[in-house]
Amino acid sequence: MGTFIVTDDDIRADFQAAGDDLINEWGKVCRLYYPPRQVQCPNCVYDPIGKKSSNHWLDGGPSFFPLGSMCPMCEGAGTHSEQATEDVKLLCVWSPKDFFVPGPRNIVVPEGRIQTKGFMTDLPKVLQCTEMVVQANLEQMLRARFRRAGEPVDPSSICQGRYFVTNWDRAG
Ligand SMILES: [Zn+2]
Asked: Which of 39, 79, 90, 106 has the fewest CB neighbours in a 10 Å radius?
């Protein structure tokens, strides 16, 4: 316990409950896009030597095709790229004057930059993603894509290690 600053467990618990509520109640569901992976086509037999489709239908595959013709699912490539995504809840701040962590005073914040605060447990996912879409449920209508800008930080003094804040720049 400090001499001038007293942060007992009750205060810490209150701060943490408030911080958790902000993310859980006011956070937006953001969709993280991971780098696409090449996976084998589920519809044809892969030719590992030629590294392409053998043009044989894989028994039980979703789209039958006659022997010797091209697999309609991968068009002969034998693989297709699979885009994995994951949703996390992030508190989003759109206006630089309200940022959790303000930038240096004499540096202009780039147009389209936002800041998010999320749970530290979601940080590994955020670090892995190549892009994020804010408000996944509106993705069809309002598609705002962002790329992470700079390294995430933990700005909290009272609830250290629980939240992270990171900057994002608009990517389309
Ligand atoms: Zn195929």
From this structure: 106
Distance 36 CA to ligand 1 centre (A): 18
Å from CA of 70 to ligand 1 middle: 8
Name the phi and psi angles at 17, rounded to 5.
-60, -40
Q: Report how many helices (DSSP H) and strands (DSSP E) the chain contains, helices first.
A: 2, 10
Give residue 15 CA to ligand 1 midpoint distance, Å. Answer: 54
Show the DSSP H helices in 27-63 as ranges.
none
Please give the pLDDT value at position 157: 86
Summarize the confidence of residues 4-15 as an average pLDDT. 86
The CATH architecture of the domain made up of 9-35+83-170 is: Beta Barrel (2.40)
Where, residue-wise, is CATH 2.40.10 in the chain?
Answer: 9-35+83-170
Q: Give the Å distance between the CA of 139 and the centre of ligand 1.
A: 29
1: pLDDT strictly greater than 80:
no
Q: How far is the CA of 78 from the centre of ligand 1 (A)?
A: 5
